[in-house]
Amino acid sequence: MLCQDQISHAFSRPLFLSLSLSLSLSLSLSLSLTGSQISISAASFSLLSSHNSLNLMALAPWPRSTSWHWLCSLNPTLVIFLLSFLLPPLFNVPKSHLQCFGESVYCVASDIMSRCNSGESPLDRFIAVVTWSISTVRPVIFGVAPYNPILGETHHVSRGNLNVLLEQVSHHPPVSALHATDEGEHVEMIWCHHLTPKFYGTSVEAEMHGKRLLKLQNHGETYVMNSPKVLIRFLPFPWADWVGNVRIQCQESGLEAELCYRNTSFLGRRGNQRSIKGKVFESSSLKTLYEIDGQWDRTVRMKNINNGKVTVIHNAKEVISGLRAPIVKDTREIWASESALVWSDVSRGILSKNWEKAKEAKKAVEEKQRELQRERESREENWVPKHFTVSHSKEGGWECSPIQKWVPEAPIIVPL
């Protein structure tokens, strides 16, 4: 049951994309509860361009001369310890990791998903899936982090016929599950994510364990892929971004793709950042069919090895341009576990820069979880996810299977 004076703010912190003209994508959504009704006020996505690079430090919510410099002066290992366990609201993006995962699926302007299903040949569909995979990668902002989702936290959003549902199925370690379906296109996505950090002196690498499944049911094809890693570097210039290798496989068509995400710079100076290279090849013969090259936050090109034809398969500006902010369609269907409601008071404090209020609100959320954990232990009960069945093995890691075949329409929708 939702409290009458509860107010929630979500989708509130800008995400910044460095495109060829330094694009800035901002999404702001506010859920507020008045009596038994939830009203919504939303600032639309804004797409800003400038010939100069964005100054993220100037955009940060904290004073440059105090907290930021204090953070950067710490030992890198200690910084990550603080970010992982003791992170105050001052360094939080006012949204949950769960919401960020969901946004990578439903925050797209072009209908990339339908292209995956409408391809005439297995190769056409495979290339569309590669394009979609690249489109899910969003920039990481150094120095701030989303909230760590609480156990059982959910995020449920619809865009057209695409319904997306996420649930935090484990807290120690943190494991997030995603199920998305499009009944019209007969497309299904199942993700299971588990992040683990590795320390390398002046940098930290966070590996995203778990696999992503994309099923094109009309064609009987299942695409299996992994995620790139997050690299956080402190010296000589602080930055964070995606790196590493991604493999996409489709057993039914016998096709594979290898993508390598890199962020190259010299002595901390801006170089050929956010580059991606890769290839599409036949699994059996290892024959390369296409070469992939570009920058995932700008444009990515694909070259046909047979005839040398080059095609742009991904334009980041087109993917995010014209986006509209989510709205609440049915106020009665908002779950108490919805991420926007769980972190409502914390986000309000951050947005108003009332850090003491945000700190107390975050402490209240965390203490409530400890209380629920103590109650379960006293009753000798194990917590069970509502929307997924979860298993874990040393060999296979975490596996999440959705309980429902199709994700129902969500009360929060992204207008087309």
Automatic annotation (TrEMBL):
Classification via Pfam families: Oxysterol_BP
One cellular component term from this protein's GO annotations in UniProt: membrane
Gene3D superfamilies associated with the record: 2.40.160.120, 3.30.70.3490
UniProt keyword annotations, A-Z: Coiled coil, Lipid transport, Lipid-binding, Signal, Transport
Family matches, as InterPro entries: OSBP_sf (IPR037239), Oxysterol-bd (IPR000648), Oxysterol-bd_CS (IPR018494)
Coiled-coil region: 355-382
An example Gene Ontology molecular-function term: sterol binding
Signal peptide residues on this chain, from the entry's feature table: 1-30
A GO biological-process term: lipid transport
UniProt function note: May be involved in the transport of sterols.
Similarity comment: family membership: Belongs to the OSBP family.
Designated name of the protein: Oxysterol-binding protein
Naturally occurring in which organism (per UniProt): Lithocarpus litseifolius
Taxonomic lineage of the native organism: Eukaryota, Viridiplantae, Streptophyta, Embryophyta, Tracheophyta
